[in-house]
From TrEMBL:
PANTHER family: EXOPOLYSACCHARIDE SYNTHESIS PROTEIN. The keyword Glycosyltransferase does not apply. Keywords: Membrane, Transmembrane, Transmembrane helix. The keyword Transmembrane applies. It holds the Pfam family ExoD. The lineage of its organism: Bacteria, Pseudomonadati, Pseudomonadota, Alphaproteobacteria, Rhodobacterales. This is Exopolysaccharide biosynthesis protein.
Length: 205
């Protein structure tokens, strides 16, 4: 089985973000209009230039977008999230993707429509995120959050037939990674509230 390494800019996956970080990431992911389909490998390569957090953020955001309606995509994105997040948690200097996963593709027009749907949330994030509560965006905190993302990703294939479940999990993971990506600890803290509530309810039941 072929594997491909993705080099991340920094070991902890963080860079000094611009004030348009989320929007810039979407710009980088926009497909070439000459291509009818876009491979996951190409998407990963583009996102990987921004580091671990952006790399996990992309499939999480896609499964939270209208693209999640494509049959089988939620399971595929869940596997991608789990595979990337576990390596993020391990602190690898380069991320590995199996060749079969890199070769999977999505329709370019559907991807573009999904990115358009994410533009408004991205502009909101650019406006209100800032570097704060740095302890929650440290390397150690990032690895712990990556473990949670891995668990969420692994759950997605099993929840494929449960309406909106994968989208909800994807949204939570996307917000977690957005907080790490923009180094906004307040966003990270807010993203932990739903899992804590769900855990408390499960324990109570």
């Amino acid at each position: 089985m072929a594997f491909h390494a993705l080099a991340c800019p920094e070991r902890n996956g963080f860079k000094t973000m611009t004030t348009q970080a989320a929007s810039n990431l979407l710009d980088a992911l926009s497909p070439d209009k000459s291509n009818e389909r876009v491979t996951l490998g190409d998407i990963a390569d583009r996102a990987g230039r921004e580091g671990y957090a952006a790399l996990v953020l992309v499939p999480a955001a896609l499964v939270a977008s209208p693209l999640s309606g494509v049959p089988g995509l939620s399971a595929l994105m869940g596997i991608s999230i789990a595979l990337l997040a576990i390596q993020m948690a391990a602190g690898r200097s380069g991320l590995w993707l199996p060749g079969w996963l890199r070769r999977r593709s999505v329709n370019a027009d559907k991807l573009e429509n999904a990115l358009k749907a994410l533009r408004k949330p991205a502009r909101f994030a650019d406006r209100y995120t800032a570097r704060r509560l740095s302890a929650l965006t440290s390397d150690i905190a990032g690895r712990l959050i990556a473990v949670l993302a891995c668990i969420g990703g692994l759950a997605m294939p099993f929840l494929e037939l449960v309406p909106f479940s994968s989208s909800i999990i994807g949204s939570v993971i996307a917000v977690q990674m957005l907080g790490l990506f923009t180094r906004d600890g307040l966003v990270v803290l807010a993203s932990l509230v739903p899992p804590l509530i769900a855990g408390a309810v499960a324990l109570y039941i």
